[in-house]
Write a structure and sequence with these properties.
Oligomer: single chain
Radius of gyration: 12 Å
Number of strands: 7
Order of helices and strands: EHEEHEEEE
Largest sheet: 5 strands, mixed
Strand content: 35-45%
Distance between the termini: 40 Å
Number of helices: 2
Strand order of the largest sheet: 2-1-7-4-5
Length: 76
Amino acid sequence: MVRIRLMGAFAHLAKTRELEVKLEGQKTVDEILREVIPRYDEFHDKIIFINGKPAKGTAVVEEGDEIKIMPVLSGG
C-alpha cells in the first residue's frame, strides 16, 4: 500500500485529505496521482514529498511509501 496525503485544491478535488492505494506494478508519482485526483494535469506547479523528502512526479513509488502533495499558489 502507498499512503497519499493531499493538501489544498488536491484534497478538495479528490474529496479527501488522505487515502491509501494498492500498488500494482511499478508506477510514478504522477501516474498514481492522475488516478486519484481529477484534473491533476491542470496543476503545473506542485510540491511533492516522498517519505518526507522532496521529489518529482517522475519518481518511482515503492510499496510502503508515503506521498504528500500540495499545489503551489501564486498571485499578487
